[in-house]
Design goal:
The structure is a homodimer. Chain A has six helices and 14 strands. By secondary structure, the first copy, chain A, is of the alpha+beta class. The first copy, chain A, has one domain: Porin (Beta Barrel), CATH 2.40.160.210. The radius of gyration of chain A is 18 Å and the shape is globular. At the A-B interface, β3, β5, β6, β7 and β10 of A face β3, β5, β6, β7 and β10 of B. β7 of chain A pairs antiparallel with β12 (237-239) of chain B.
Chain lengths: 268, 268
């Protein structure tokens, strides 16, 4: 059986004592280095593969210190603290002796409690109604998803006319793949830079730090399977070379799966 | 001259080679251990005091691994990567040989660029119109702030009647203190647990991880001085023992200063 291209991209070989070996995948190439979502998923995968793992992911923060070279790398994942039902992880990705990513994660054994989704998923036309992927594939990784934007597409005229930064979309892996924590972490990062939309101006931009909170457990993600995922992202402020982005990801049935926040560098 | 009580609480003594000594302050005591906002500010302070610091804070993530004991602690802050204009920090707070907090931070030398605040500050009555602090001081740290809630107060009847989780408020240090990165990081955490408001039910709750993005530079924070700060927080989803909270902090003039996101443990 051949592994799904996403599983190939995030695959790690244990090197013992908190260390794992990986390598970048050309299938998820971005403008420079790999798609940040796949790098985030790889950092999380080291935690999930770790023999000392307790529970399932609740929070993941990744900080992109440098673009990864298209080459092997090493992931170091250390359980800094293990409590009765929560565990705190410190992760670094190192390439040629230099840190290219720092990360932290919190995992926990979840228990059933009262709950409610406060933020409802946006109303939007069905993915089928849109008919086909419509996010311009200017870089390779975009072809690894079927993304159907329902609001806030990449501008086609770069005329400075933008006035809002919200994008809503449908997405799923291409080819289809059952949802899990790693693919969900990657999907939190599929939204192209908000500054392009808000300004209708294409400027260099790259994520500096991203945090993902997982609201669903593994069983719930498995139940979503390879179904459509609904996503929404918008910025709150742009200033002096950085902007932020809040994002939410729901199942097709409207169940909140993850919320995310990132800060992005931009030029000019 | 006596240091402001906040500066006393976050004070660190350099121990050389990435290490700093601090101790908890009874003035900021929470239910168990110190107010998480002050612990976040202390982690950030280690980065700001570090002799290798480049630039100013852009992003801070703190993960609360255990309640701090009311005792001395050590902060380890390491520059994992220094680029031309950004720097990546890995921080841990250790007490009695155990990790009680993990953190990462990104600092950067900011340059002037195009900018806009996309999310406008909520309209609300002035702090003066409210007349006095109105957030019930059930724990000591609340007395270190003048907090005037304009919407979404702590319920007075715990009758399960809640239906929304948004709180808007005015805040400033008490006594007054000019705003800086550390006090802004702490202010991102003043919002009491959203689960109390949403359910009108008081359950045990504690922040697990918090991220703060700084949209203003040091000069801009200095210009805000000891003025009123406007804050807003709401949850997006509650499920299986955890909920998230997004928060925004503006100057009185309505300028976005910071955006924040946290995930909080709750019981039942």
């Amino acid at each position: 059986m051949t592994l799904h291209v996403f599983d190939q991209a995030i695959a790690l070989q244990p090197l013992g004592e908190d260390r794992f070996a990986g390598k970048t995948s050309p299938a998820y190439a971005n403008m420079v280095g790999p798609f940040g979502g796949v790098t985030a998923a790889t950092a999380l995968n080291a935690v999930l593969q770790h023999p000392a793992l307790l529970g399932e992911p609740v929070a993941l923060t990744v900080n992109y210190a440098a673009a990864l070279a298209d080459a092997p790398f090493e992931v170091v994942a250390r359980a800094a603290r293990t409590n009765r039902s929560t565990q705190h992880w410190v992760v670094e990705i190192v390439q040629s002796g230099e840190t290219v990513l720092t990360a932290t994660a919190v995992t926990a054994a979840r228990r059933g409690t009262w709950g409610v989704d406060e933020l409802a998923a946006p109303d939007m036309p069905t993915a089928d109604a849109l008919g086909q992927p419509n996010m311009a594939a200017q870089v390779e990784w975009v072809r690894r998803y079927d993304i159907r934007i329902t609001e806030g597409a990449i501008p086609t005229a770069w005329d400075g006319s933008g006035d809002a930064s919200r994008t809503t979309l449908w997405m799923r892996d291409e080819p289809a793949r059952p949802l899990d924590f790693c693919s969900l972490a990657a999907m939190a990062d599929v939204f192209y830079p908000r500054v392009w939309l808000r300004r209708a101006t294409r400027v260099p931009a790259g994520t500096v730090s991203m945090t993902v909170y997982f609201h669903a457990g593994g069983a719930e993600l498995a139940a979503v399977g390879a179904g459509w995922i609904k996503g929404q992202a918008s910025a709150q402020a742009f200033r002096n070379g950085f902007f932020d982005q809040t994002a939410q990801v729901w199942s097709e049935a409207g169940r909140m799966l993850a919320t995310s926040h990132q800060v992005v560098y931009f030029k000019e």
